[in-house]
Amino acid sequence: MVLRRFLGGAADRDDAPSSAAVAARAGGSGAAETDTATIRRIVTAIEALPAEQRRYIAGFAYVLGRAAHADLRISDDERKMMEQTVWKIGGLSEAQAVLVVEIAVRQNELYGGTEDYLVTRDFTDATSEEQRLSLLRCAFAIGAAEGAISAEESAELNQIGKELGIASERINAVRAEFTDQFQAVQRMRRLTGTGGEPMPEDPPGR
Questions:
Q1: Strand partners, 149
Q2: Each residue of 70-125: pLDDT tens digit?
Q3: Is the Cβ–Cβ distance between 106 and 38 less than 8 Å?
Q4: DSSP secondary structure string for all residues of the chain
Q5: What's the rounded Cα separation, in Å, for the pair 172 and 203?
Q6: Under a CB-based contact definition with an 8 Å cutoff, are residues 2 and 102 in contact?
């Protein structure tokens, strides 16, 4: 997978987004900002990070992209939150975070479904439960970036939690933090004018 190769040490420039696109996402303008040299400097800086940190960032970013792409589209709000999250957890510059997210988004759009399990399994094997819970919580936040979590996103988030090796009870605890974001709950509240009922939790042990 390109993202893992890129952040694991073997950069693949052909699969990176265009310099113009990255500069635009980072807020840059002018010929100097859109020059290929800009991308090369960003890539060089990322490659200078310890391999373990690069692998962690790669897995984290991909799974966030997986959550965002659950409904087969990634909105600007979701992308922006992904960039902010990767920037915070990865200790990257804004431009580096934008580049990593662009690659993660592209990989999910092109290969989502075929790489999902492998990437999530690799992340699970290399991280602590606390780190995996942090990722799941961030994935829920990405799903809620537009103010509502769809049924497709809810199902994908549940699957991500299972693949991360997180117990159903803990997945449900994270889910409860975002109860008001679920579209089904919001629709029920609008129709009934009441607080509605929460969405069914994942049965323990599943």
A1: 182
A2: 999 999 999 999 999 999 999 999 999 999 999 999 888 888 788 899 999 999 99
A3: no
A4: -HHHHHHHT---GGGSPPHHHHHHHHT--SHHHHSHHHHHHHHHHHHTS-HHHHHHHHHHHHHHHHHHGGGS---HHHHHHHHHHHHHHHT--HHHHHHHHHHHHHHHHHHTTTSHHHHHHHHHHHS-HHHHHHHHHHHHHHHTTTS-B-HHHHHHHHHHHHHTT--HHHHHHHHHTTGGGBHHHHHHHHHHSS---PPPPPPTT-
A5: 9
A6: no
39-49 per-position pLDDT tens digit = 677 777 888 88
Residue 195 pLDDT more than 60? Answer: no
Q: How far apart are CA 182 and CA 196, in angstroms?
A: 12
The amino acid occupying position 94 is E
Give the whole-angstrom CA distance, residue 65 versus residue 199. 24
Interval 5-47: pLDDT, tens: 656 644 444 444 444 454 455 445 444 444 567 667 777 788 8
HSE-CB for 177 with a 13 A CA cutoff: 15
Q: Could you tell me the domains of the chain? A: 2-192 (1.10.3680.10)
